[in-house]
Amino acid sequence: MQGSAIQQPQGTISDHGGQGGHHGGHPDHRLFGMALFLVAESAIFLGLFGAFLIYRSVVPVWPPEGTPELELLLPGINTIILVSSSFVMHKGQAAIKKNDVSGLQLWFGITAAMGLIFLIGQMYEYFHLEMGLTTNLFASCFYALTGFHGLHVTFGLLLTLAVLWRSRQEGHYSSESFFGVEAAELYWHFVDVVWIILFILVYLL
User: Fold this and answer.
1) Segment holding 17, helix H or strand E
2) What is the pTM of this model?
3) For burial by CB atoms within 10 Å, which of 19, 95, 105, 202 has the most?
């Protein structure tokens, strides 16, 4: 007599976090893929930082004569805002792990506001600097590094807003389903670390 087989449900892609997997027993490699993406992005920034340090070492006077001195107040405030936003965003992930969707929305909303303030501060600095992209080598490096980082902050802000938008759907994020939240936070932390290195190299050294 042929035994009856138990039919297993077909696997579907879920939104589980780092410990969760796809239904049907398939491991979830999305977070690993996100980490690989950030490694690739890190390589790009390392190349830019390396070029900056090489220019700094071979040019006799750095910054070149005639380069206006960079103000530290606004970038310093921006640094505090951006670094603090990582701690704020982490509160959002901690909230969703407790099934607190309102907490997720609150902390991610504050993070989005802080990211927007950072970008506004950066644009304000650009408009008030007495140098342009082609003023000299230092100016070109400055705008390339800060502008490329600003592009990443913008993308991180869009990711954060996407999480907020999708959190409006009941049950989309929960303690068992939070990959989007985790991915957005990981990317935001990456942006913060890159800015700290950039701030030290460009503004302080």
Assistant:
1) none
2) 0.84
3) 95
